[in-house]
Design brief:
398 residues, 44% helix, Sulfite Oxidase, Chain A, domain 2, five-stranded mixed sheet, 12 helices, five-stranded antiparallel sheet, Fumarate Reductase Cytochrome B subunit, oxidoreductase activity, 10 strands
Length: 398
């Protein structure tokens, strides 16, 4: 050792085993390197194809998620149509199903690229640094979106943050990191999407084609096993479907009257529906509502968790209630529930939906069950279930 030897080199020499020593050779043998991973599943052609399908799943999930967010919190320029009545049912079903499909695709993609974690040097250039940063952000955002989305589907909230806001914000983060990653890797992607030639199987017997087929099969199984929640034709073959026809009148229930703490108020003989138009307030009892002309319509309940189911609803058209209050049909309407708290205690019905919406009193020929919103609830075409306000006691013309 010399006095002019830099201090950091002296520290490194003391901490690390001498080059060529038995310990150094053992570390070199144990520490994985990128070149140690030569299996077909790690080939760039496999990675690129998985990336394309994962990108399709993410794009569908992102676009339909933006739609759902805009419907619930509409900006001034946004208009969501009331027809066809199953439109939101389709878009939100696609949102959840594409998210579920992305899970096995993401796991296979990460398995394909994880040897890159052991490449040295860690940073080779500015594009390489951007690539690594995009992968880090993309992986974290994707895992957050898919994991929290899956728990939301099961209505199992293990966190303290407000899910819709966090899910929406991280979705933009994921989208930005995907665009950055694709821009950096575009030359590699173009080269890798050429003809997929067959190769020798690795030690587990999987070729590139076999690995891809296994991934696609796992994705298909995941979709079919869960899609029955929103696709009626698959309901009998979807063992992991998270909603069924169990519930009052054969319709599932997300939030019960007990959980909303409205049982006493909803069952009170003093309940009245208040219809407010300017300074005028009209109060109707349940018997008076039932005496009004009734309309029956086949409309779906489509929840943000992805499940949906059609049912026969009977009630008073909202436009009739507006006329009763002296208002025209082309008004926005705010509904208020008997619930005292909650982000969805009130909902605003846009003018595009006023004509097709019912204040429902009966479900599938039976008087509304308490958990379905007795004494009356909103049922509108092509709207999220969280906006189909239950236990309504006030209708305000805006």
């Amino acid at each position: 050792m010399t006095d002019d030897e830099p201090r950091h080199q002296r520290v490194k020499r003391r901490l690390l085993p001498a080059e060529g020593s038995r310990l150094a050779r053992l570390i070199d043998r144990v520490q994985p390197r990128e070149e140690d991973f030569r299996g077909p599943a790690h080939h760039e052609k496999v990675t690129a194809r998985l990336g394309v399908w994962l990108g399709v799943a993410f794009l569908l999930c992102f676009a339909t998620g933006l739609l759902s967010h805009a419907i619930q919190k509409p900006p001034g320029w946004f208009v969501w149509p009331a027809a066809p009545v199953n439109l939101y049912r389709v878009t939100q079903g696609v949102h959840v199903i594409s998210g579920i499909a992305a899970i096995p695709l993401l796991l296979a993609k990460l398995w394909s690229v994880y040897p890159k974690l052991f490449s040295r040097p860690l940073i080779r250039s500015l594009p390489h640094a951007l690539e690594r940063l995009s992968i880090l952000v993309l992986s974290g955002a994707a895992f957050f979106e898919l994991a929290t989305g899956l728990f939301n589907v099961a209505q199992n909230y293990l966190w303290g943050f407000y899910f819709p806001a966090a899910h929406y914000a991280v979705a933009w983060l994921a989208a930005g990191s995907i665009l950055l990653h694709v821009a950096v890797k575009l030359p590699v992607i173009r080269r890798a999407l050429g003809r997929l030639t067959e190769d020798e199987p690795d030690r587990r017997g999987l070729s590139r084609r076999a690995f891809l087929r296994t991934t696609y099969l796992a994705t298909g199984v995941a979709v079919v096993a869960t899609a029955g929640a929103t696709v009626p034709l698959l309901r009998e073959v979807s063992p992991l479907s998270w909603r069924s026809d169990r519930g009052p009148a054969g319709l599932p229930v997300n939030r019960t009257a007990g959980a909303a703490r409205v049982t006493e108020l909803a069952m009170s003989p003093d309940w009245r529906l208040e219809i407010v138009h300017g300074t005028r307030t009209t109060a109707l009892s349940l018997a008076e509502l039932e005496a009004l002309p009734q309309t029956t319509a086949e409309l779906p309940i489509a929840c943000v968790e992805g499940w949906s189911q059609s049912a026969s609803w009977t009630g008073v058209p909202v436009v009739d209630l507006l006329r009763l209050a002296g208002a025209g049909p082309d008004h926005e309407v705010r509904f208020t529930s008997l619930e005292q708290k909650g982000a969805y205690r009130t909902s605003t019905l846009p003018t595009t939906h006023t004509r097709g919406t019912l204040l429902a009193l009966r479900l599938n020929g039976e008087r509304l069950a308490l958990d379905h919103g007795f004494p009356c609830r909103v049922i509108a075409p092509s709207r999220p279930g969280v906006l189909q306000t239950k236990w309504v006691h006030r209708l305000e013309v805006l």
